[in-house]
Amino acid sequence: MIALIIGIVVSLVITMIGTPTLIRVVHKLHYGQYIRQDGPQSHQVKRGTPTLGGVVIVLAVLLGWGASALYRYCTQHIVPSWSAVLTLFAMASMGLLGFIDDFAKVRKKQNEGLTVKGKFIGQFILATIYAVLALMLPTKSGFPSAQAGMSFIETPFLSFDFAGRFLAIVLFVIWVNFLMAAWTNAVNLTDGLDGLCAGSSMVAFAGYGIIAFWESYHLRGSGHPGFTYAVSDPFDLTIIACCAAVACLGFLWYNCNPASIFMGDTGSLALGGLFAAMSIATHTEFLAIILGGLFVIETLSDIIQVGYFKMTHKRVFKMAPIHHHFELCGWTEGKVVVRFWMVELLFVIIGLMIFYADWVVRSGL
């Protein structure tokens, strides 16, 4: 538990101290956000607000986990697990892709950075590296960092092994690419109002912290009664999820309305990549749909709007993603954000209830 506390404290301190430092640096470099012209006109006043805040979030998670890992090694001789390293790789690599996109925007002085093709190629390469390593690298626990299949909770309801080892790896690579693309874009779409993405992500990762901790307490071979989980090093995943939650909390201090800094694609892609990796590492890829319910709603609203407009040239919402719809309905930005936080909290509570109910049923209690 001391290791967990160290990670939480370090991550929070890094964001609380690092964010205002980054704000000053970005101001000096004149790296301000460029606002989309087709968005709500009330957002044009945010033009020039410092961006690249996701850099601090990524560093806070990495340094928080690093401090925790150092403590565990020095006191208990516990070597960092591959599961943790790969999960952090997913976050940092997607964050790097977002940083390149953000940097291109500020250099071009417009709201368009990398091309869609460029982003797709980058995500494909990084997600493929993560997928292959997650299946191939041995872990100290003996359980793989990922399962070649699709899981709701723990046990795959569709295993790719039916196709043979090679094709199972290929199918898993495709599956991971889908998850990475889906969650990075979902979190990115949610990053449209001051504090919305940071607050919602904080709640989502707090939920994953609870799930990973429960799995670590009921790890297969631990001797604890009830259903046990064949998950690789879930306590490491607990630390990462909690570090991410408090990093978002610290960043939210400066990102709440009116925002002093935006996380940019650096932050939203990193958090989306981390959320996808957490779902894979904890074997809860489909439960993640509930845990990240707000992100799903944001994405579906955009898909519905675009699809319906192409078919009928009419709009379902006043503007998509759906948080803009409520803004144009007369809700203040603050009201939209807080109520959406509440929606995400409800999704996480429902997800945790389902997770616990599944454990109770499987335990025969």
Automatic annotation (TrEMBL):
Location(s), subcellular: Cell membrane; Membrane
Assigned GO CC terms: plasma membrane
Membrane topology: Multi-pass membrane protein
Entry coiled-coil feature ranges: none
Catalytic activity: UDP-N-acetyl-alpha-D-muramoyl-L-alanyl-gamma-D-glutamyl-meso-2,6-diaminopimeloyl-D-alanyl-D-alanine + di-trans,octa-cis-undecaprenyl phosphate = di-trans,octa-cis-undecaprenyl diphospho-N-acetyl-alpha-D-muramoyl-L-alanyl-D-glutamyl-meso-2,6-diaminopimeloyl-D-alanyl-D-alanine + UMP
Pfam families: Glycos_transf_4 (PF00953)
Protein name: Phospho-N-acetylmuramoyl-pentapeptide-transferase
Lineage: Bacteria, Bacillati, Actinomycetota, Actinomycetes, Bifidobacteriales
Gene: mraY
